[in-house]
Fold:
Amino acid sequence: MPPNAVITGWGMYAPQRILTNQDLARMVDTSDEWIVTRTGIRERRIAADDETTTTLSVYAARDALAVAGLDPTELDLVIVGTCSPDYPLPATGVLVARDLGATRAAGFDLQAACSGFLFALATGSSFIRSGMYRNVLVLGVEVLSRFLDWHDRGTCVLFGDGAGAVILSASDQPGGLLGLELFSDGTGAEGIIVPAGGSACPASPQTSAEGGHFIHMSGADVYRYATRQLAESTLAALRSAGLGVDDIDQFVYHQANLRIIKSVGKQLQIPDEKVFVNIEKYGNTSAASVPMALVEAVASGRIKQGDRLLMAAFGAGYTAGAAVVEWTADPLQAFRAPGAQTRLGKPRSAGAATLGETAADEEAALPEVAAAG
Ligand code: ACO
Structure:
């Protein structure tokens, strides 16, 4: 029997700088009311100038390792799902392994836009189920704030920065990944695109002047496609697990737009209490969105040992991914791990053993920094 790939550790990191809808209304022609009613977003996190996709990854990964009780040297592989890497090359996964001290691990990046974490989860699980590796760090991380045109109200109000991580470990016990569906349709390539900076349109002063290095999006087209595809991918993953909608305890969808999540819930007749939402705090963090929502769902007590989860995302490409996972870990492990900061996305820092510190204390400690834009 091939080993199962079960989630043994989880962590997230959200940069401390908060950009509210009110801040955005001072930067572009928009309003808190428009953003909240059209998207459900109230604020998002923006990486500090000295933060990168690698540094965000390392914070989330250290928490995930602490929860799993693993030393970085026990990692066999680091996969970073991202479309906002530190550099076109080298791969962020290599830098993350270096900075973690994961000296035995191979590292690479996986690009499937907002679906990146689901594709990375599928890839990591396959390495474990094949018997090749025992411990794989899977990350979804973005610093999309560096790829936004802060004059384009159609995109800059939607996205935020963040990181989410899980450790997948080989296990003889039942559980882990039960069903999977990966999807792509390149006919939608123009729907969400960074048109310049690649081989099709190399970087030049002209591409820079024309804003070719920023995200361009046909919002309404993406919206229509996403609502249909997320529902279809959900059903396909359930079919591959031999399960139905009613067999799932918690649905963790990509947090792109509250209306998209609600539309999928309505199509599939999922009760609201089974759908986890945190978009109001983080906006669309692309590949980081599902793992950050997963970490917060576990921390909030919405996910218990033995529960079945469905995680699904949709993104540029178009791409979509959906996975059915049986949760086998003790959710309280995150609170027992040294540091115990993973539930609020605060970075673990040297000497900051905050066991016993209350969530309210940590929340209060988060400084609110209005963005300069
Ligand atoms: N503030 C105020 N008005 C705005 C804003 C804004 N920030 N943005 C657009 N508008 C205006 C438009 O100009 C338009 O005005 P008009 O009617 O005078 O032309 C009006 O609001 C309606 O615009 P729509 O685009 O039709 O608005 P919609 O209700 O579709 O919402 C949105 C736009 C939020 C972008 C939505 O289409 C959406 O969420 N799309 C999906 C995005 C997504 O899921 N992306 C996921 C993948 S991203 C990735 O993979 C990296």
